Amino acid sequence: MSKPAATADLLPPATQTPCCPPMAAQRVEPATALQLAPAFKALGDPVRLQLMSMIASAPGGEICVCDLTPSFEVSGSTISHHLKTLRDAGLVDAERRASWVYYRARPGLMRQLATLLAPGDDES
Amino acid sequence: MSKPAATADLLPPATQTPCCPPMAAQRVEPATALQLAPAFKALGDPVRLQLMSMIASAPGGEICVCDLTPSFEVSGSTISHHLKTLRDAGLVDAERRASWVYYRARPGLMRQLATLLAPGDDES
DNA sequence: CGTCGGATTTGACGTTTGTCGAAACCGAGG
DNA sequence: CCTCGGTTTCGACAAACGTCAAATCCGACG
């Protein structure tokens, strides 16, 4: 409509952006912490962190589970479980095509996390 | 043990590491994941995320535990435990002065995390 | 159809985590 | 020296987590 405030435009359903100034510049409020902490937690496992990076850096923006699994020592079901965790956190998206499942990154949330971690703008 | 390892152990392992291009630009290697995942995990709790932000945004760069505790519903010992987690992760530093303990942020690691989450520069 | 292969779900397991209360620690003042 | 207030550590316990093997689901292809 007429409000030029680009911050809190739409707050429809689940994964909305109560977006976040850098935490070094302003205290994170409880509601934001409740929403963003699970995303950090999802990245707080070495396997998931690698999975996330493989998905985010995949050429073409997507990668097949069959290309993810052989890079790890853990079983396929464990990989699947970790992928579900990333999915539930809103960090990735999955699409089934034929017999294979492809994952792609959801840049929105990751951008929020990056902004939150960004150094305070008054830094020297 | 040939190392006088006491001081080296106290130093966060990632203060001046050269690593971490954005994970959207390049896959993060296992060793890096092993090193940085604990930091994400440490931020993966709502209380700790708020604690971290209160410390990082504290005027003067530091804040007393006595100013942190009353902002939460949980007990003082729980706050202390969370602060230890942040300390162990290398995200904050503590200094005792008189009867009070002051915490301050360690920007190094947080900057690495931010870089890792930064959007890939070759994205379209 | 029936079967095969990739992926997810289920059930079970040991481990880790978040929380509390109680106890211990540590400076400061009486 | 003894006490007091702020902080951390110690046990304890339920909940959540990471992992695996087995079962299940879901397209594809004989």
Summed up, what is this model?
2 copies of one chain form a homodimer. The first copy, chain A, has 124 residues and is an alpha+beta fold.
Characterise this structure:
The structure is a homodimer of 124-residue chains. Chain A is α+β, with helices and mostly antiparallel strands and 124 residues long. In chain A, 43% of the residues lie in helices and 12% in strands. Chain A contains 5 helices and 3 strands, in the order ααβααββα. Chain A has a 3-stranded antiparallel beta sheet with strand order 1-3-2. In chain A, helix 2 (46-56) crosses helix 4 (76-88). Chain A is elongated, with a radius of gyration of 17 Å. Chain A starts with 29 loop residues before the first helix and ends in a 7-residue tail after the last helix. Chains A and B meet through helix 1, helix 2 and helix 5 of A and helix 2, helix 3 and helix 6 of B. Chain A binds a DNA duplex (30 and 30 nucleotides) through residues 45, 47, 64-66, 69, 74-85, 96, 98-101.
Describe the structure using short key phrases.
homodimer; alpha+beta; 5 helices; 3 strands; disordered N terminus; DNA-binding; ArsR/SmtB family transcription factor (chains A, B); transcription regulation (chains A, B); DNA-binding (chains A, B); transcription (chains A, B); WH-like_DNA-bd_sf (chains A, B)
